[in-house]
Amino acid sequence: THLFGPAGMLEQDDGENWSQSTRASRGVKARSYRHNMRMGLGHDDVLTDDSTVSRVETTISEHAQRWLYRNWMDWLAADSWADLKANHAPLPKGRI
């Protein structure tokens, strides 16, 4: 199911793991390394049809996180709302 894994939130007993992971990412060693968000990169296809929104069907991936950071970069780089609207990242298509 898509409710488990990095993008899912059903495993509430893992709450301590999430908070400890967040706390650990503030440490000296963690800040000296870049975050690796390449899980599944180039291995999944964006599925599109007229009955629903575009989607990536995979068990575990980091597509949501990569898309968030891609858009965040666009939001921060935009000079205005009009600029953002005209030049935002296009929807992903094909293999991602």
How would you summarize the topology of this molecule?
Elements: H1 15-24, H2 28-31, E1 46-49, E2 52-56, H3 63-77, H4 81-87
Antiparallel strand pairs: 1-2
Shape from CA axes? extended
Rg, Å, rounded: 16 Å
Percent of residues in beta strands: 5-15%
Number of domains: 2
* Main structural class: alpha+beta
The main sheet comes to: 2 strands, antiparallel
Poorly predicted regions are: none
Gist?
This is 3-phenylpropionate dioxygenase subunit alpha. Keywords: Dioxygenase, Oxidoreductase. It is built from four helices and two strands, in the order H-H-E-E-H-H.
Report what the structure shows.
Keywords: Dioxygenase, Oxidoreductase. Strand 1 (46-49) and strand 2 (52-56) form a beta hairpin. The two termini are 20 Å apart. This protein has a two-stranded antiparallel sheet. The chain has helices at 15-24, 28-31, 63-77, 81-87; strands at residues 46-49, 52-56. The radius of gyration is 16 Å and the shape is extended. It folds into two domains: 1-33, no CATH class; 36-96, no CATH class. It has 96 residues and is an alpha+beta fold. The protein is built from four helices and two strands.
